[in-house]
Amino acid sequence: MMVVYILASLLMSCMLHGVWATPLDDYVNNLDPTYSYETLETFQGEGYTLYNINMTSQSWIPDLQSQPVWWHYLSVIVPDKILIKGACFLLIDGGTNRDSPPKPTDNFVRLTTVIAATTGAIGACLKQIPNEPITFKEDPDRKQRTEEEIIAWGWKTFLENQGADPEILVELPMTKIGFFHSMLSISL
Ligand SMILES: *[C@@H]1O[C@H](CO)[C@@H](O)[C@H](O)[C@H]1NC(C)=O
């Protein structure tokens, strides 16, 4: 019954929007003026440059939780000679918003660098997806939640509210992260 109700409300939402867009489409396509980025530091390596960027991706349900503005460390590696044009790759890493900026010697940054430098493609290592830790204001335990706990809290709330507010699902902001804007602007 619950499932039927949720499907019905999703269907209604699609009809109201006049297209078969899902709440995820709507969330991702909704331009967020919070988006910005700044280069924190630059490292010159042999055959490449590594930019450590602080990318602010979006605002996510500011009234409900402790991390209203999401920001991420994005390490972009630009080879001196770009051999593969019009394509790049992304490695998604974890981490928390309390971490210091990643070092070029960190495992996943290093891995991204080796692939970028040997293939001649621009690559990036993106951290803090999702942003964490997060404390939900309605959480009776007021616990600092990470990873699957954030996902579980979202789905619990979503189901209890009969699917009324899909934005509580952390998969939406996780999907939205518009990293390619930062990468493309830097490579020009
Ligand atoms: C990154 O940017 C966010 C949002 O502007 C800010 O709150 C955060 O302190 C910045 N982090 C670093 C390490 O500069």
Helices, strands, pairings?
Layout: H1 2-17, H2 23-29, E1 36-45, E2 48-59, E3 69-79, E4 88-92, H3 107-119, E5 122-126, H4 147-160, H5 171-176, H6 179-187
Parallel strand pairs: 4-5
Antiparallel strand pairs: 1-2, 2-3, 3-5
The structure holds 2-acetamido-2-deoxy-beta-D-glucopyranose.
Question: Can you offer a commentary on this structure?
Answer:
- By secondary structure, this protein is of the alpha+beta class.
- The protein has one domain.
- The chain is built from six helices and five strands; from the N terminus they run ααββββαβααα.
- A five-stranded mixed sheet has the order 1-2-3-5-4, sandwiched between helices.
- The chain binds 2-acetamido-2-deoxy-beta-D-glucopyranose.
Which features does this protein show?
188 residues; alpha+beta; 35% helix; 23% strand; elongated; disordered N terminus; binds 2-acetamido-2-deoxy-beta-D-glucopyranose; signal; PhoPQ-act_pathogen-rel_PqaA
Order of strands, widest sheet: 1-2-3-5-4
Number of DSSP helical runs: 6
Number of beta strands: 5
Write the H/E string, N to C.
HHEEEEHEHHH
Mean pLDDT: 87
The shape is elongated
Distance between the termini: 53 Å
The computed structural class is: alpha+beta
Pfam family, one: PhoPQ_related
Signal peptide: 1-21
Keywords: Signal
InterPro entries: PhoPQ-act_pathogen-rel_PqaA (IPR009199)
Summarize the structure.
With 188 residues, the protein is of the alpha+beta class. 35% of the residues lie in helices and 23% in strands.
